[in-house]
Amino acid sequence: MPLFTLVTICLNAEGTIARTILSVRKQIFRDFEYIIIDGLSHDNTLTEIQKYEDYVDYLIVEEDRGISDAFNKGIRVASGDYILFVNADDELVSERTLLDLKSNIECNGFPEAIFHSWVSQIDRVGRSLINKPGPENGLRWGMVFNHPGMLVHREVYSKYGLYDISIKVCMDYEFLVRCYLGKIDFFEIPQVTVNYYAGGVSDKDFHIGYFEAFKIQNRQFGNNALNWLNYIKSLVPLYLARRSVFRSIISHIKDFVYKVNKSNS
User: Fold this and answer.
1) 53 exposed, middle or buried (CB, 10 Å; 0-12, 13-18, 19+)?
2) Are 45 and 16 in contact (CB under 8 A)?
3) Three-class SS of 132-194
4) Does the chain have fewer CB atoms within 10 Å around its N or its C terminus?
5) Closest-CA residue to 85 (of 158, 209, 172)
6) What's the first-to-final CA gap in the chain, in angstroms?
7) What gap in Å lies between CA 58 and CA 16, rounded to an integer?
8) pLDDT number for residue 125
């Protein structure tokens, strides 16, 4: 069995899938398999994948029931000891990434655990923000790890289950809370391993994510006032941001009307 299984899930990713595949292809550590799960793309994603089919060990092309379902398909066919998701908007940062991951795992004795690294989040204008994981006890209040930087031993999935397909955005958070409550070991890898490009589901549907996280906390930690306070706190920036945008729009409209009236007077 290989040490690593790398899984890419994609849907209509013709503009980014080649970048992801090439970042996997250039790895100097070769003890891994590569799986792509396509949710029946209707653009040219499959055409792009076929250009690199010699580097793909397993390709599944079929409709799924969402991101969690696609993740689970990859896990079920994986044969590697450790599973890493490198999705269609992500890329491994260098040709040494898997070698560095292997070195970190080896230093810790190849445990049945979860490793989590730093990721570089790239915004729409190309600026990079380094996201470092928080302490694992922070999972009580929200997502403190970066899913693109998570490396999970296959036995962790066997013991604690796969991703909940009823969850649209926070499936990784719900899975990690289960593992945290099950006393699984977490190890931080203090380096950037993945470039993560903004614009995915968790970015677009963050308001749904906040509510899902609230429900997960109620289910796993008990329905109490602290959960409600945490949820309300997460909504305040959204309210202020929308209010600021609304005010800005109104201000621009007033300026436009003023200029029109002035030119006609």
Assistant:
1) exposed
2) no
3) CCCCHHHHHCCCCCCHHHEEEEHHHHHHHCCCCCCCCCCHHHHHHHHHHHCCCCEEEEEEEEE
4) C
5) 172
6) 80
7) 19
8) 78
Q: Which amino acid is at 159?
A: K
Burial class of residue 30 in the structure, from the number of CB atoms within 10 Å of its CB (0-12 exposed, 13-18 middle, 19+ buried): exposed
Range list of H helices, the chain: 17-25, 45-50, 67-77, 97-107, 154-160, 171-181, 201-204, 206-221, 225-264
Instruction: Give the amino acid at 41.
Output: S
Which amino acid appears at position 19 of this protein?
A: R
Place of tokens 């190890």: 187
Domain locations along the chain: 4-223, 235-265
Q: How many CB atoms lie within 10 A of CB 249?
A: 10
Amino acid at 213: A
Provide the phi-psi class of 104: left if phi over 0, else alpha when psi is between -120 and 50, else beta: alpha
- Residue 218 is which amino acid? N
Q: Is residue 218 classed exposed, middle or buried when 0-12, 13-18 and 19+ CB atoms within 10 A define those classes?
A: middle
Selection from 65, 9, 73 nearest residue 38 by Cα: 9
pTM here is: 0.85
Q: Do the Cβ atoms of 61 and 157 come closer than 8 Å? A: no
* The pLDDT value given to residue 91: 96
Residue 223 in tokens: 């329905």
Low-confidence residues of the chain, pLDDT below 70? 199-207, 236-265
Residue 209 to residue 95: CA distance in whole angstroms: 33
